């Protein structure tokens, strides 16, 4: 295993992100699923010049991105978006993409379970075959019930992966598992070799080591199924607006370069645009917790 980190949690120039991850001992980047933002040749050159690599990407299911939408054209646009993310990963030399099938924050279905399942399977098959051509493996990611009604548990993601294809995998996120799984360690074990990616934050979605999760036990469970990919850090700390705030200088009150959709995505996660110092502390604490275990 090795340590990776996402970059969707902090809107900043990619070179700033890369220098930070190198500074704290991360080996790779799981780049945000916004292929239209990046010159992949330039980003790959930056990564290589700093001795790190692209692990993969994660779809950001903002706005009308939804692989199980009732509207056929909306599904087609969403498929095209995921395929563009896969192409970006290939061009960056990455190997995996984590796919959340539905719009994050959408908790009301569009149709019957049978119709939505069929729409999603067919959409994911298109993405899956594109991934096979690109050498990029899909991992279907369950997220908690407050962010989607569709895929919340590992067993559901496994069933969807099996319906899509033999090489379709599962990406697990221990923050979401801590909410939804009866036994997160057993869920890891049940995934076996379908497990292609693993996202990490503590139970409060702050840095690993800033909550109550048992990280040695989690890492041991991953080792037990032969998982040899990334522990991909994806914290999303809550913004405290009360006098009980332990981190009074955490928010960036005048952020630059953030789009309305990106801000909404953070706020829909109960988070915000954070100051550089607060963000770096989370990057550092996660590395200090996990590196000794892997």
Indicate the mean pLDDT. 93
What is the N-to-C succession of helices and strands?
Answer: EHEHEHEHEHEHHEHEHH
Number of strands: 8
Structural class label:
alpha/beta
Helix content: 40-55%
Compute the gyration radius: what is it?
18 Å
Note down, in words, how this protein is organized:
By secondary structure, this protein is of the alpha/beta class. It has 10 helices and 8 strands. An 8-stranded parallel barrel has the order 1-2-3-4-5-6-7-8, surrounded by 6 helices. It starts with a strand and ends with a helix. 45% of the residues are buried.
Entry keywords:
single chain, globular, eight-stranded parallel beta barrel, 294 residues, alpha/beta, 42% helix
In short:
By secondary structure, the protein is an alpha/beta fold. It has ten helices and eight strands.
Set down the secondary structure blueprint.
Layout: E1 2-6, H1 14-23, E2 28-33, H2 40-49, E3 53-59, H3 72-92, E4 96-99, H4 113-134, E5 137-140, H5 154-164, E6 169-173, H6 174-180, H7 184-191, E7 195-200, H8 215-224, E8 230-233, H9 260-268, H10 276-290
Parallel strand pairs: 1-2, 1-8, 2-3, 3-4, 4-5, 5-6, 6-7, 7-8
């Amino acid at each position: 295993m090795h340590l990776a980190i996402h970059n969707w949690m902090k809107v900043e120039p990619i070179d700033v992100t890369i220098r930070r991850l190198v500074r704290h001992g991360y080996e790779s980047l799981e780049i945000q699923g916004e292929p239209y933002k990046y010159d992949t040749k330039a980003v790959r050159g930056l990564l290589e010049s700093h001795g790190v690599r692209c692990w993969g990407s994660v779809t950001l299911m903002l706005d009308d991105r939804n692989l199980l939408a009732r509207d056929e054209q909306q599904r087609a646009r969403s498929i095209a978006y995921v395929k563009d993310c896969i192409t970006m990963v290939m061009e960056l030399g990455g190997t995996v993409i984590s796919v959340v099938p539905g719009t994050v924050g959408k908790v009301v279905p569009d149709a019957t379970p049978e119709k939505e399942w069929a729409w999603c399977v067919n959409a994911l098959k298109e993405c899956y075959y594109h991934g096979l051509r690109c050498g990029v493996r899909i991992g279907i990611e369950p997220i908690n019930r407050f962010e989607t009604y569709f895929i919340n548990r590992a067993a559901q993601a496994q069933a969807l992966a099996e319906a899509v294809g033999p090489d379709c995998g599962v990406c697990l996120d221990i923050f979401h598992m801590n909410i939804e799984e009866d036994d997160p360690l057993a869920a890891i074990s049940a995934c076996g070799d379908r497990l292609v990616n693993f996202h990490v934050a503590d139970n409060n979605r702050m840095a690993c080591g800033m909550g109550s999760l048992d990280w040695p036990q989690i890492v041991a469970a991953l080792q037990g199924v032969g998982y040899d990919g990334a522990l991909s850090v994806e914290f999303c700390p809550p913004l405290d607006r009360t006098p009980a705030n332990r981190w009074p200088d955490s928010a960036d009150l005048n952020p630059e370069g953030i789009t309305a959709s990106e801000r909404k995505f953070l706020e829909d996660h109960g988070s915000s645009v954070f100051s550089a110092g607060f963000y770096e502390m989370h990057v550092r604490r996660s590395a200090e917790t996990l590196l000794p275990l892997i």
